[in-house]
């Protein structure tokens, strides 16, 4: 999960985007970028797409073993290089989502997009590879080390970013967790819907995401109201008992 | 010695390497200076993790203190009106501490303690139960809690003073502004907590009936809570 964020203006800019271990101008980024833009939409998240990119860029085929260096090989997944491709996709898209928003002195009351705008923007980023989402989901949801180390943390990082960089109210108690869970849940279900969606420009997915987010947020309201009422009832009954005791 | 110089030379001037384009480059970043001087190197993951933990445990602790005083006021303010202004004063300070750490938590994007509801419940019980025994017992509870908190803040200050001397781009070392600020906040709060400790002793905390049992029991509960809140 996310840890302490220092005030970034006082520090040297990091040269990598966490958790990637290479810079944006490195060879890995070049290959993976090329692959995501050109070959993944046609071929999907697999080794074939990466090999094609390597060939098109005129690089040595051995590069593919370098790409996956930061992932451990696994029997259930296809190859470490493909896992890196997926990780790169998740991390860079998340980064791109909030790139244009100033990172310092955030004013919660104006100038920030709404949570829904960010959610829709993130979903739209995946429209070019809309047909490959089933494949992507299959890779991400296999129970494995990759799920725990990359897939789930990235999902929660995305939810955290969406809440932090939107004008949504943030919390310092259990609501901090439930809101992040709610947003993650909305995002994953919308993505699942998108994998099956055949409408023009995925308009039905966007509608679905809108409704889902509305419902999840309404759930939060229900909870708050119930809590208010329970506290009110508790206080009223305590005072009633106290007053009865005083009378005797 | 000889081998090493050769190696460093070859590494520095190597014109071709399969791996060199793959390494994260440490090319000098264009903007190294801010308006008020040179920039700091990045904090290490361990340092970030420590700050994360400091904010979480202090936030949970101040939340606890807030609820303890609330509980005491709820029970005591009617029967012992002379204690009301004293408790009110301490409670208001705790509320200020709590909101300060709440703001820090949101600003630095750390997570609150996962068992916040449990802290609320536990702290309310810890405020109400001794107050039901006697006002002196409530004061003994305050004394025990503030002793543990004072020590805990001192430990944090020691670590912040020792471990956060960060290198700058011009080669010098200094504490970043935010660490200095955090240190000041913790110092101020520690002094106020110790003031509360004195207030409790002045208000006959030593007269509480099972004094040893109460204070030692509450101290160990607080220590266990701190240990847990740092982690969960």
UniProtKB/TrEMBL annotation, chain A:
Cellular-component GO terms for this entry: mitochondrial inner membrane
Keyword field: Lipid-binding, Mitochondrion, Transit peptide, Ubiquinone, Ubiquinone biosynthesis
Molecular-function annotations in GO: lipid binding
Domain COQ9 C-terminal: 149-220
Statement: the UniProt record of this protein carries the keyword tRNA processing: no
A Pfam family annotated for this UniProt entry: COQ9
Pathway named in the protein's UniProt entry: Cofactor biosynthesis; ubiquinone biosynthesis
BP-aspect Gene Ontology terms: ubiquinone biosynthetic process
InterPro entries to which the protein is assigned, alphabetical: COQ9_C (IPR013718), Ubiq_biosynth_COQ9 (IPR012762)
Localization, UniProt: Mitochondrion
Protein family (similarity comment): Belongs to the COQ9 family.
Function text: Membrane-associated protein that warps the membrane surface to access and bind aromatic isoprenes with high specificity, including ubiquinone (CoQ) isoprene intermediates and presents them directly to Coq7, therefore facilitating the Coq7-mediated hydroxylase step. Participates in the biosynthesis of coenzyme Q, also named ubiquinone, an essential lipid-soluble electron transporter for aerobic cellular respiration.
NCBIfam families named among the record's database cross-references: diverge_rpsU
Name recorded for this polypeptide: Ubiquinone biosynthesis protein
Organism: Maudiozyma barnettii
From TrEMBL, chain B:
Binding-site residues for Fe cation 2, renumbered to this chain: 94, 146, 193, 196
Pathway membership: Cofactor biosynthesis; ubiquinone biosynthesis
MF annotations from Gene Ontology: 3-demethoxyubiquinol 3-hydroxylase activity; metal ion binding; oxidoreductase activity, acting on paired donors, with incorporation or reduction of molecular oxygen, NAD(P)H as one donor, and incorporation of one atom of oxygen
Cofactors, names only: Fe cation
Domain of life: Eukaryota
Topology within the bilayer: Peripheral membrane protein
EC code(s) of this entry: 1.14.99.60
Cofactor: binding details: Binds 2 iron ions per subunit.
Predominant localisation class: mitochondrion
Function summary: Catalyzes the hydroxylation of 2-polyprenyl-3-methyl-6-methoxy-1,4-benzoquinol (DMQH2) during ubiquinone biosynthesis. Has also a structural role in the COQ enzyme complex, stabilizing other COQ polypeptides.
Family note: Belongs to the COQ7 family.
HAMAP family: COQ7 (MF_01658)
Protein name: 5-demethoxyubiquinone hydroxylase, mitochondrial
Organism whose genome encodes this protein: Maudiozyma barnettii
